[in-house]
């Protein structure tokens, strides 16, 4: 059976599934309605409209949800209008710094998102048709991606110290081990 490239509708559905998975995780761990709504909207500001989208979230869902969504965003740039996000490394370092002082509700939404993302990376890394190509999704090399997820896991384990933060730490360790394995069928180089 021939496989076709995913259509835009499938990509949109996949994005919706990610948002639902993050919201379901928040609810599974005892989050309330506002946390679930924030989980559904956590990417909306940085991916779909920047500050204008944040104002819309605030108007529709209230200050509490908007505060969480803003805190879970690493950029308020409206890339659809040509605004540029800050360079990746400083943007991620600033996000990590904000997490170190964030309220528990912000940490829960962010943690649910990062666990889902890390699970997806690991799952796709292990798929024969994707494997090492999973790292091409990122604007940086796999070492920088793993640095970010290790840093996240450390912060979440320090701030929340719960089953979900432990799961993120464990996934990151497995990812690190998977990356260290030789790639079958081709020679590994120092750059991966």
How would you characterize this protein structure?
The structure is a single chain. This protein has 192 residues and is mainly alpha-helical. It has one domain: Hypothetical protein af1432 (Orthogonal Bundle), CATH 1.10.3210. The protein has nine helices and no strands. The longest helix has 23 residues.
Give the key terms.
192 residues; Hypothetical protein af1432; mainly alpha; disordered C terminus; single chain; disordered N terminus
Strand content: under 5%
Derived from helix and strand composition plus strand pairing, the structural class reads mainly alpha
For the sheet with most strands, the description reads: none
Helix content: 55-70%
Rg over alpha carbons: 17 Å
Average pLDDT level: 87
* End-to-end C-alpha gap: 32 Å
- Shape field: globular
User: How many individual β-strands?
Assistant: 0
- The number of helices is 9
Helix-strand topology string: HHHHHHHHH
Overall CATH class? Mainly Alpha
Please indicate the count of domains: 1
The CATH superfamily is Hypothetical protein af1432
CATH topology: Hypothetical protein af1432
